[in-house]
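[DERIVE STRUCTURE TOKENS]
===
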Amino acid sequence: MNTNGNKRPDDMQRITTPELANAFIEEKVAEIKAQVGDGKVLLALSGGVDSSVVAALLIRAIGKNLVCVHVNHGLLRKGEPEQVVEVFRNQMDANLVYVDAVDRFLSKLEGVAEPEQKRKIIGAEFIRVFEEEARKQEGVDFLAQGTIYPDILESGTVKAHHNVGGLPEDLKFELVEPVKLLFKDEVRVVGKALGLPDSMVYRQPFPGPGLGVRCLGAITRDRLEMVRESDAILREEFAANGFEGKVWQYFTIVPDFKSVGVRDGKRTFERPVIIRAVNTTDAMTAEVEEVPYPLLKRIAARITAEVPGVNRVVYDLTAKPPGTIEWE
């Protein structure tokens, strides 16, 4: 199974079974050992399936020479930083470094509305954080990333991904990207074969720039909280109504405009929340989930009642294509 370069070979077999996954793991572990040797590797560990699978591969190949760095950039979902620390440090015994960089990232992003610029700022700042962490370690020459094949394909045609188009030109690390030729469904099969828990393997995809691409336009702290709180309500309601394992990805978005509404008999001028729920196997195309109307009404009622500054909820009915899964 030849997986060198950035182009997936035409004859590369899709990884659909534990046997194929084990063959891939064996090959990648050998490649990592050959590339890294006795060196140390930094990994951006978000807790999503891509970075988790890369972490498991690297732990199998180089053990404690992997340094996992979890950066709280202020763009994570509600409760996520705490969950990542609990799972990876306490349950998986990973060599985990936690970095609180909320103020640093939000300061860099202040007033920046253009989506590609936001992605590149976030990606470049991530690298700077890792460079700082690397200087605290000895012998770190490698940066591991959970880049997957749709990231590479879309960075050339649709949008820059923080781990592809957003990397600085003066990068001082050699990249280690063991799953860069896999589609999302293949990464999950590999994760299962590596023994990762289902809660990690089947965790919802989350963009590298986090809520930064769901807080449309220039990012503000108040709209970030609207996204975070409305997203938590959506996830809670989907879990309670049997959609947690049924829908591939679902989230909320808050745009940078307001609309007129009425609350307690008085005029309001507040934000809308957009709900997105889609199903896909490879992230290249996606279909919209047909959520029952009573459930949508309940979610809308909760968001408008419980999230300050929101007076309207809408549901995105657009497939991919012509839309993309994310709005930015």
Notes: The two ends are 35 Å apart (CA to CA). The mean pLDDT is 90.
